[in-house]
Amino acid sequence: MDIELWKRISGFIDLDSYPELPCPHCNQYSLKLSKESVQSRPVNKEHLLITSRKYRFEKERKQALIDKSREVSNKSEGLLIPLLLTFTNAYAEAVEPTNGNTFIFNSFFECANCQQNISASGMLLEHQTGMSQSSSKARQIKVEHFSPSIFIFPISENVPKHIAEELLDAFKHFHFDPPSSASKLRRAIENFCKDMQVEGNNLGRMIKSLEKTHPEEAKYLDALRQIGNEGTHGSDVAELDLLYAFQVFQFVLELYDRNARYNELTHVYDKLAKKYEKKKQPQQLPKLEQLDNTK
């Protein structure tokens, strides 16, 4: 899982340098934004401040940086340094994307490997690259919706469908509503615990029961439960924390691949035992849980 990639596109990014993404059709990192397909329409800034969590966060964050720089300028002695800082602050405000024109946009991504396409939509910011009105305009975008959804990490075919579906929903919501994404991740964790057939009428108790058979996985899931709770009952879920949670859950889900390899190995072992130890009762391989507990 490439955390830096998803961290990069979680905010506004230059349209001309948007990175290639994993294709949901072939899983290759060859999905590229078709800049020619981008179509935009103006949208009211005040409306975005209410409806867009990301736009509101970025505008407040950038303005705080500018205000801090202005405060330093006011406290500086002499004439030259405050003058330079004042000019720098004015320029920064003029070219800051969140202070520019705001749009909603639609576009398409095309996979260079399988030639399949997906649609994408979100916000587009347009600002002047210089102080004069004749300067060329630079554009930044934040994709909020991919259709079909993009996998933040590959989901193995060995993962049960009811877990994979909740996880894919978490991936989808990550780009526009991190708290909802965390809540979806929590539901995926609940489904995992149910699939492990553990006791408990809530997630905390199920994870506690899971410690008996899968202590390592239970330890990781208990930490993820806290993030899921924040997404369900609060609103302060950072994208980076959520990406780390996805990375941890990816490791937990590898249990299904390990079980599949174990079952395959058992089948091969039985065939070899029958061939070379016909007169002996084939010994049974230790259970996977026993192997895990010897680590």
From TrEMBL:
Protein name per its UniProtKB record: DUF4145 domain-containing protein
Stretches assigned to the DUF4145 domain: 170-243
